[in-house]
Specification:
The protein has about 260 residues and is an alpha+beta fold. Helices cover about 25% and strands about 25% of the residues. It has one domain: Alpha-Beta Complex (Creatine Amidinohydrolase), CATH 3.90.230. Strands 8-7-9-14-15 form a 5-stranded antiparallel β-sheet. Helix 1 packs across helix 2. The chain is globular. The chain binds 2-amino-4-trifluoromethylsulfanyl-butyric acid and cobalt (II) ion. Cobalt (II) ion (CO) binds next to loops.
Amino acid sequence: MIKILTPHQIELMKHSGKVMQQIFIGLKTVLKPGISTKEIDEWVYKFIINHDCKPSCLNYMGYPASVCTSVNDVVVHGIPSEKKILADGDIISVDICVNYKGVHTDACRTYLIGNVSPEAKRLVEVTKQSFFEAISGLKAGDKTGDIGYKVQTFVEKNGYSVVRDLQGHGIGTSIHQDPGIPNFGKAGTGTVLKEGMAICIEPMVNMGDYEVVFEKDGWTCRTKDGSLAAHYENTMLVHSDRVELLTFEGNDEQV
Ligand code: MF3
Ligand code: CO
């Protein structure tokens, strides 16, 4: 069921969206070769708590950390670990959900660590661009398939593939709500977007094939062929004539 947000809930989400953006800006200086993904998790946890919010991911369906840190061929849901140390040339997506007084925002950036190959950089840029292609002209009355179609067309035109097993979603009083928002599909199909709902659009893009595998930990999702993957996500509010990004105002990642 699609939930329409109250004006008060929207205000709360705007607040956590601003906290989220400060986190992404702060991470630019935190993310360096030599840091462990566990240290990233601790930094984000403290930032969220110090801003009177809660990390929605911690203990969500048993998830053991506050953020997802997905390095290189890990597509999404990488679990932070003191053993996973960032190296020069890595790409890492940091996916964060912030809970402010019972409503949530969800966003992700893929960062470049040190000297990254031009190929990897291009993957990260195309992934981000596919998100902006999808929201261009998007408004109430459009369908979820319109989003998937735009993401897929742009990504495949650039020689990459979109992950099929995971998708974007509605968001509000819980992080995952109806409707599901696939990153592939046919324009004019799927669920109609309504004014006053919030959604997360999150292209997950593989350099190689679209197939993914899940590790025994039940979370870590990798490309099956070992190719690099990138992820980009924002939470947005649907209006009659546009969408309003709640977790993005300007360039906040290291691309
Ligand atoms: N942003 C992630 C998603 O939409 C949320 C991860 S929370 C976790 O899948 F607990 F599932 F890690
Ligand atoms: Co999400």
